[in-house]
Input
Amino acid sequence: MKTYRAALVGTGSIGEAHVRAIEGTAGRVTLEAAVDIDAARVSEFARKHGIPHHYTDYAAMLAAEKPDLVLVATPPAQHAGMCIAAMEAGAWALCEKPLCGSLAELDQIEATEQRTGCFTACIFQMRFGAVTGHLRRLADSGQLGRPLVGVCNTLWYRDAAYYAVPWRGRWETELGGPTMGLGIHAMDHFLHLMGPWSEVRAVVRTLDRAVEVEDVSLALVTFANGAVGSIVNSALSPRQETYLRLDYQKATVELTHLYSYTRDNWKLTPVPPAQDDGLLQAWHNFPPDFGSTHGAQLNAFVSDMDAHRRPLTSGDQARQTLELLTAIYKSGFTGEIVTRGSIRPGDPFYTALHGQRAPKRLKGEPTRAG
Output
């Protein structure tokens, strides 16, 4: 089987997760180069992890190394351009969230895929834990009945020190607040389990942090299958929790965690009285467990490269998540109910998640200049 030569772009804290993911491919991926604008940081990162080459210039790395795979772990505003450049150089790209800053940029990524034959996927590792696949199989087989009600909460806490990083808290560089930067993982996981969405109505506010972007959003979502769900994304919640709840006709399934999960984080409650031993037995017939890690997604991505097929978190699957985020912002800023497919070229929210607007804030609350 082919060994894929990879380059990592961005050697901040998330870079360690990428190194561990590559180590978990049993030699199918080798990390040949690292890139960072901070020469001292990339040099030390390469030395620490035994990476043969390091660069401060991304284009120079692409020309010199000709990697098969580029792992993009830079600040958000750079993601789309770097993924496009990787594909134009003949590499596939696996990019940290958010994949890009607008539906217009996503169209540019997809046009590049069609032109080059390469693919770009977003890192949505929550989809790739073993129990998620197990739950999908139970749901698809009809053993749980139809999904009816869902809850998706990303209740995290980010203080002033977090937002002191220069690119954070600004539309131009972070691209959004907790809707885009924190809750995107749980929302993508939610859509993966509940199915495509059809319309959304939302509230978007800046309640406490002195930033341009929002610090909280709430949304009511209707799904194409008729189910309904609620979403909360917060950077203001001292007791942190990531929580998914899916109420099917025959059982409630819950996932409570923070940044990752294993089997122990899941719970199934059958319809009372709990007489369906078959459902309980099916639920407890778990596959071998592995968590929702970068490594789990990278191994799936390698299989996609082997088969030269579109990765799960690219194309339409990436679009439905980014389009939901965009619709939450549009609904929150305009008060409209937003339907899937309605944000098109000519709509200000097509080219910018915030539609060149600012979230409502408490009277007198300061904002940081852009």
